[in-house]
Amino acid sequence: MTIEQISISEYNSFYENYIKIIPKETSLGILFLENLKESLDLFDNLSEDQLSLKYEEGKWTVAEVLQHLIDVERIFQYRALSLARKETKPLPGFDHNEYVVNSGAEHRSLQSLKDEFEIVRKSTSILFNSFTENMLKTVGEMNGSAATPRAIGFIIIGHTKHHLKILQERYKL
Q1: Could you say which DSSP state residue 116 is in?
Q2: What is this structure's pTM?
C-alpha cells in the first residue's frame, strides 16, 4: 500500500503537511524501515550536550523533540489499533504541548531516547503488519474527523519526517 491509495477523506486536513512529504511510490512497510534508519542516523550523530539545545527561546529542546516523537507514535499506534478493531467511540485529541511539558525529557539520556524510539517504531511496524487490508481501511473518528488506520500509518511517517527536518534545519543537527 502506498500513499497514493489514501483518500483525503481518510484523515483530517490538519495532517496534509505530513501526508504530502511522503514518497509516493514507497509502501508503508518499507517507509517504516527507511524512516527508522533515517531517524537513527540523525540520532547517532547527537551528543548528550545537544539534548538541551533549543534553536530559539520558548521552543522545545532536542530531548523534548525526541520524546515528542515517541509519545505521538504511541498515541497514533493506539488510534490505529482502536480503529482497526472497530472502536465506535470517537477517539479524542490530546495537547502535545502538555505532553512535552510533563515528559521529563530533560532527565533522559540520549541512549534511552534512541532505544525507546527504535523499540516503539519496531512495535509500530509489527502492529501495522498484523492488520488485514480490511482493518487498514476501517473508518472511525479521531480528533473530530474521519480516519483510517492506513492513513494513520502514513501520518506517523510524515510527522517524524517533519520533525527530523526541523532538527536538521533549525537546530542545525
Answers
A1: H
A2: 0.96
- Whether 24 and 35 have beta carbons less than 8 Å apart is answered as no
CA distance 172 to 149: 33
Q: How far is CA 39 from CA 5, 28, 56, 83, in A?
A: 25, 16, 22, 27
Strand partners of residue 140: 147
Q: For residues 119 and 148, give the distance between their C-alpha atoms in angstroms, rounded to a whole number.
A: 23
Taking a C-beta distance cutoff of 8 angstroms, is the pair 119, 74 a contact? no
Under CATH, which number does the domain 3-169 receive? 1.20.120.450
- In whole angstroms, what is the distance from residue 90 CA to residue 117 CA? 27
What confidence tens digit (pLDDT) does each residue in 12-54 have? Answer: 999 999 999 999 999 999 999 999 999 999 999 999 999 999 9
pLDDT in tens, 133-160: 999 999 999 999 999 999 999 999 999 9
Compute CA distances 97 → 40, 70, 78, 100, whole Å: 24, 14, 19, 5
